[in-house]
Amino acid sequence: MMEVEDTDKKRLRQLMIERLTKLATSEERLEQIEAIYKKLYASREWASSQAIGVTIAVEFEFPTQPLIQAALASGKRVAVPRSLPGRTLDFHWIDQSSLYIRSKFGVEEPKEDHPAAPEDLDLLIVPGLVFQSSGYRIGFGGGFYDRFLSEYNGKTLSLVFEEQMNEDWQPGPFDVPVEKIITRN
């Protein structure tokens, strides 16, 4: 299998966005969300975590607001990333009253400055568009999470619709896998 070139990754991203947009209004999506959350909340990673890093999902992604609300309600701390120049991320603590601004990428990011050090996060929920069972993922193309993951030592997982699984591509040299993929099955 050859390494996927940038144009191939762009094509896979676009195809997945189209697929997820179609899935967004289906009953199938709701069934998958419910099953995936049930598995997450029963997982060792969730039970042992006290501080979670998670992106606020855009419309077609796996919804993270329920996870954020459940984490805060159970006393866990939650941090949400901001994208920075140099294609890096920094995380900021949020609570029920936090305010957000929309980034240039269309993602909600914390307005207030409450920095969370990477070592304070014991679980990172990593977004993406295309996933392999080995944990490799294709994100949105900036390498933000791969850069963060290359320095992060906590637990990592992704919440993934079955439609996002695709083994027919080769990870690049800078791609960093997540430790666990949670799907409905």
From TrEMBL:
Co-factor requirement: Mg(2+)
Catalysed transformations (reactions): (6S)-5-formyl-5,6,7,8-tetrahydrofolate + ATP = (6R)-5,10-methenyltetrahydrofolate + ADP + phosphate
Binding site residues for ATP: K9, K10, R11, L12, R13, R137, I138, G139, F140, G141, G142, G143, F144, Y145
Gene3D superfamilies xref list: NagB/RpiA/CoA transferase-like (3.40.50.10420)
Domain of life: Bacteria
Molecular function terms, GO-annotated: 5-formyltetrahydrofolate cyclo-ligase activity; ATP binding; metal ion binding
This enzyme's EC code(s): 6.3.3.2
EC primary class: ligase
Pfam families named in the record: 5-FTHF_cyc-lig (PF01812)
Gene Ontology biological-process entries: folic acid-containing compound biosynthetic process; tetrahydrofolate interconversion
Residues that, per the record, bind substrate: I56, E61
Keywords: ATP-binding, Ligase, Magnesium, Metal-binding, Nucleotide-binding
NCBIfam families: MTHFS_bact
Family to which the UniProt record says this protein belongs: Belongs to the 5-formyltetrahydrofolate cyclo-ligase family.
Protein name from the UniProt record: 5-formyltetrahydrofolate cyclo-ligase
Species per Swiss-Prot/TrEMBL record: Enterococcus florum
Lineage: Bacteria, Bacillati, Bacillota, Bacilli, Lactobacillales
Gene assigned in the entry: fthC
